[in-house]
Amino acid sequence: MDFLKLRAVNFLTLGDTGDMLLKDRGLIAIMGENKDDSSAKSNGSGKSSIADALCWALFGATARGESGDSIINRKAKKNTYAAVTVQDGESIYEIRRHRKDKQFKNGTTITVWNPADHYFNGGGGERIEKGTEKEIQAQINEIVGCTYEVFKAAIYAGQEDMPDLPKMTDKPLKMLIEKAAGIERLEKAYEIAGKKRDAAVAAVESSKKQIENAEAHIVNWKVSLQQAEQQHAQFEAGRPDVQKGWVERQEAIADAMRKNFTTYQNMKEPELIAERDLLQAQLADHNKLLQQRDALIRDENNARSELRVAQVELGKMRNKVVTLTDAIKNAPEAMSKPCGECGKPHTPDELDTFITHQKTKGAEVATEYQAKRSEVEALEAKVTAAGKAVSDYAATIPDVSAVSARVAELNSHISSAQHLKSVLQQQKTEHDRCATQAAAALTAVNPHQSAVDMGRQQIDALEKQVADIKAAQAPLLQAAEVAESVVKVFGPAGVRAQILDTVTPFLNDRTSDYLSALSDGNISAVWSTLASTTKGEAREKFHIDVENSEGADNFGGLSGGEKRKVRLATMLALQDLVASRAAKPISLWVGDEIDDALDNSGLERLMTVLEQKAREKGTVLIISHESLSDWCDQTATVTKSGGVSTVSGALCHA
Prior knowledge:
This protein is α/β, with parallel strands linked by helices. Among the domains are: 1-145 and 586-654, P-loop containing nucleotide triphosphate hydrolases (Rossmann fold); 211-238 and 450-485; 267-420, Helix Hairpins (Orthogonal Bundle), CATH 1.10.287. Helices cover 60% and strands 15% of the residues. Helix 8 (269-329) runs antiparallel to helix 10. InterPro entries: P-loop_NTPase, RecF/RecN/SMC_N. Residues 197-231 form a coiled coil. Residues 42-639 form the RecF/RecN/SMC N-terminal domain. It comes from Burkholderia contaminans.
């Protein structure tokens, strides 16, 4: 993992630094000049802002914990960003964090160029940041290969925030070493391996469950098959009895048929039908006579109807004659009264005229009455004659009641005979069916055969299914075993433990080298992952034992300068671990005013160590308020003027 360049705009005291090149730069001393404060030479110039910009761009906070709007340049008040470009293999990433930016607001962007030639040839990159800042930070940690804590402990020794590794307790020191060694990747691999192991075990358990279910079905089907086979055997054994039953039923029906047939023959149905037909012919002739009689009765009824009508009309005419006679008789009295319409009295002439008129009408009605009376008398004679004709004709019709009774009797006998004949036909049908069933009793398909066949087919299919599952289970079992082995490999007692076993000697070697250079070997700092309990038992415990052969026997007893040397040595050793790890090695180290509390001899030794480290690892940046030009060939200067700091010197050019 190489840091290519860094740029900060409106960040803390910095204005626009331009691109500051970081790859393979060797040892560079960063010094400052504060033109805004005559009481300070370099303090407050913004030297530390360069390292803080790098830390903030990657993790959203400086080494001293500054974040949010507090990192915005007080003069610019907006449009702040820090961008760092890194190269990981064939991929180049630009991580750019903004604050109060006009376009990106407070967002963070990640742009990738793959392959790297696209970047160096001026090609466009692809934005890959995810949705939330939390997700984006996880992406950045993955790209850089370390967390904020590891960065501060192994890469960036911040001003007033140098990690005090010798004083760290077990848990934070263990976490720091594991992250520095890249063991968190093993934890992720352990998690993935665990999921794969669980999936493999689940697949095995699923196959076992399938086998159990199939075998349970086999047991059930075998029980069903046994029952079906028993029923099948019982049916086969019962065929003769079934045939015998049908034969016996057929014979019983035949006996009944013979008896019924004899009875039927004795009924002599044809003779009964012939006699009935003859008598019915006689009744048909008698019906013709009755029809003629009925015609005469209808004539009599019609004559009577005409007579009634004529008699009614005659009565009406008689009433008219009476009315006219009364009117003539009462005319003088009626005409003596005034006219009912005009009130005038009637004259004698009017009386004569009225009487004459009434007599004329009376004569007309009397004539009509006599004619109607003659008609009534004629109709009365007609009715009498019609009634006599009916009586005379009825006397000639013979009595056939005995014939009708005989016909009814014959119909009853014929119906009984026909019913018996129907019974014979039904018996014939049943007789034939019994014969068919008796013949088929020994050859009919066994009704339980299908159940037997189905049971055998299901058992065969299930047994094949079990065999197939067991065959497929073998690779599943093997995969589960392999997955379990992988879990053990990536587990706490696996590769992780082996790496820690190699990490401790590495850290001790590097720490010893640095302390030898810084203190002539008088001070020792030993990293250890084990400690003894009060019972003398060894248990895992991360700690650093410090001793000065010429002084204190623990870290707390060292002088301030000696403590700083130990802190530097352990931190540099931890950075060597980060730089040398197989995954995401980081070849950059930044120290901010780490020369405090060191005398000239200590400072000279420190710069010698850092120069050697820069040659081996790539780039070492030393931020100091002291002039380090005597020990550093390359220097960069941060100058603050008018509330804004600018960068010049070695960082601004290759």
